[in-house]
Amino acid sequence: MTRRRVVLLLPGQGAQRARMAAGLHGVQPEFTRWMDEMFTVFGADGDKLRDVWLDPGSAGAVDEAVVAQPLLFTVGHALGRAVRSAAGAPDVLLGHSVGELVAACLADVFDPAELATAMAGHVRRLDDTGRGGMLAVAATAEELSAELRTGAVVAAENGPRQTVLAGSDSVLAAVRGQLESRDITLRTLGSGHAFHSPAMVPAARRFGQDLGRLRPGPPRVTIMSTRTARPVSAEQAVDPAFWADQMSLPVRYWPALRSLLDSEGLDPGLVLLDASADRSLAVAARGHRAVLRGPSSVHPLLARSDRAGTAADAEAFAAAVAVLHSGT
């Protein structure tokens, strides 16, 4: 029987949580090594980042991009390395937002220390660029045509009825009123910026210049792009703008994930590893026929966010690794 392919799902802005994956620090050796190493790369900022990460009362601080972006990168990268050490490299990497940069490092497109340094400098320069916010809405983009006429834009497609809107604070306030009047479920995402919208074009251009100083190479592991919903090509991988521009473009996460799940007729199934602390990355997949009726399955790498930083993290990680070793 052919082995099921393993897909590692890596979270982005909005999925950050205080103490996410902290229960693995000091317990899982490879995770601990890479967390400590990346905190060192960040220098004095790394010490502050570690303090915020480990503080159970840091929910507000962790939402700021200057904290959330490098922390999501660091935790996601350390988790990916831990999975590789414990059970072998995943077959496919699928990252949401900054998670796509994590995927690029895990696939050896970028050196992680070099990319972390570039990203840290980039988020420090965000300042007021693209200030605003993001709303997760339980509706399709087509159902939000009225809200999109207010100036909000689709920032992400996370599921069949999971759309993220981005815009200025004033625009989102108007959108919120419209959605509430229509009894549409919504949730504010912690960001402080209108990521994945045209407002971020200047920041994306600056980041592209930073990435242009690095030495990217072709991916050694398949990366499913959330720009194209197709595997990243060797030519795309070495283009700095391909990675930087995702900051101002919508995240097509669900189309990318769906294209993997739709391949079940040619595939013995997928093992989806959800690396998000809120277990949000696999929500849409659980409703797909490949998971509902098999042969694909979903496995969280971390405890639910309300138990984050406890022994439950280690238990969830161990259970996922056990599935990989069983081959089932």
From TrEMBL:
InterPro entries: Ac_transferase_dom_sf (IPR001227), Acyl_transferase_dom (IPR014043), Acyl_Trfase/lysoPLipase (IPR016035), Malonyl_transacylase_ACP-bd (IPR016036), PKS_NRPS_Biosynth_Enz (IPR050091). It is an enzyme of class 2 (transferase). Its EC number is 2.3.1.-. Pfam families: Acyl_transf_1. It comes from the Bacteria. Keywords: Acyltransferase, Multifunctional enzyme, Transferase. The keyword Heme does not apply. SMART domains: PKS_AT. One of its GO terms (molecular function) is acyltransferase activity. Residues 9-306 form the Malonyl-CoA:ACP transacylase (MAT) domain. This is Acyltransferase domain-containing protein.
